[in-house]
Specification:
With 114 residues, this protein is of the alpha/beta class. Helix content is 26%, strand content 16%. It has a 3-stranded parallel sheet, with helices on one face. Strand 1, helix 4 (64-73) and strand 2 (77-83) form a beta-alpha-beta unit. The chain is globular, with a radius of gyration of 16 Å.
Length: 114
């Protein structure tokens, strides 16, 4: 098949498609999956910093990994998870964890005051 024959969905059509909410896309990902699937040990990386660290996770699914990291890191981390569907897990919410339901194509972080 020639690549010119492919028709890609625009952002709006893709976001309304069942592909986005597919449960086979690691929506329930836990923290160890980042090391196993992506080769990144998030806790080791963030624990190694000598200051407050920030982690932005786009397409975070249920945010299970973010909850785990927030509990492990406490006040040492500010964590933001963005997901289009917004089916976030519901354990007690750590104070430095912010979850946003939005499209990554249009979402922008809040400006930090200086």
């Amino acid at each position: 098949m020639d690549h010119r024959d492919l028709r890609l969905l625009d952002d709006d059509a893709l976001e309304r498609s069942p592909v986005v909410a597919n449960s086979d896309m690691n929506r329930e990902r836990r923290l160890p999956a980042y090391r196993r699937e992506l080769g990144v040990d998030i806790l080791a990386l963030l624990h190694g910093a000598d200051r407050v660290v920030r982690w932005l996770d786009l397409c975070c699914g249920t945010a299970n990994a973010l909850f785990e990291a927030a509990h492990a890191l406490g006040d040492r981390a500010e964590i933001v998870g963005v997901d289009l569907v917004g089916y976030f897990a519901r354990p007690p919410r750590p104070p430095r964890l912010r979850l946003v339901t939005a499209s990554v194509t249009s979402w922008a972080p809040m400006r930090r005051s200086t």
